[in-house]
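DM between two lab members

TW: hey, do you still have the Thiamine-phosphate synthase entry open?
JB: yeah, one sec
JB: this one, 213 aa:
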Amino acid sequence: MKPQPHWPRRGLYLITPDEPDTARLLARVAGPLAAGAALLQYRNKGADAALRREQAGALLPICRAAGVPLLINDDWRLAADLGAEGAHLGEDDGEIAHARAALGAEALLGASCYNEIARAEAAATAGASYLAFGAFFPSGTKPLARRADPGLLRASAHFGLPRVAIGGITPDNGALLVAAGADLLAVIGGVFGAPDPTAAARAYGRCFETPSP
Ligand SMILES: Cc1ncc(COP(=O)(O)OP(=O)(O)O)c(N)n1
Ligand SMILES: Cc1ncsc1CCOP(=O)(O)O
Ligand SMILES: [Mg+2]
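TW: and the structure you got?
JB:
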C-alpha cells in the first residue's frame, strides 16, 4: 500500500454531537474546530440518510477552511460521495478492506477495536489508518460502550499505526491515556457538553504537553 499523505497524528480528535439542526451544528463546531482539532468526525446517530448527507456536506467546507480532515462515521460510501478525507468504521459498519479498495490508499480509515488486540491486528492487516480503543471511562454519550484498559494502548504499539482513545475523556483524565500510548483523544461530551466548548477543546492540548512515549 502507498504511504498515506501527511495528516495530524497527535492531538484532539473532535467528534460531533447528535445535533438535528444543521445551522446549529455548524455554529457549535466552529469554535472547537478552530481551537485546535487534529481531525473532525461527523457522527449523528439520530439522523436519517438525507440529514447525514446534508450535515456532512455542510461541514466539509468549514473543515477545509480550517485545514482539518473530515471523517464520516459509519458510512464510507457517503465519505466517497462527498469527497471527505475518510471514514470511521465499527464492527457493524462494513469492512475496512472494502473501504480501502474503494477509496484508495490516501483515504483515512479508522477502525474501532474496542478492547480487543485481535481486532486491531485484523484492522491493521486490512489497511486501517488508525486503531481506536475504548471506552476508557464511563461515557455519557454511549453509556453501554464496552470498557477497555489503558494497557491495551501500550500493547498495540507494535502495529505502527496511530492509536486513538475514546470514551469519557476529559482534559483531566486524557493525559494518562497519552502516557499509555494514545496519539489522539476522541471526544464528544468533554467538548460539546462543556459550558465553553471552545475553551474545553483548547484544554485538551495540556494532555499532549509531555513528549509521546
Ligand atoms: C474514533 C472513534 N472510535 C470509536 C468509535 C465508535 O465506533 P462504533 O463502535 O461503530 O460506534 P458508533 O460511533 O457508530 O456508535 C467512533 N465512532 N470513533
Ligand atoms: C462513540 C463511542 N464509542 C465508545 S465511547 C463513545 C462515545 C464517546 O463520547 P464521549 O467523549 O462523550 O464519551
Ligand atoms: Mg459505527
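TW: got it. The chain is about 35% helix and 20% strand. The chain has one domain: 11-208.
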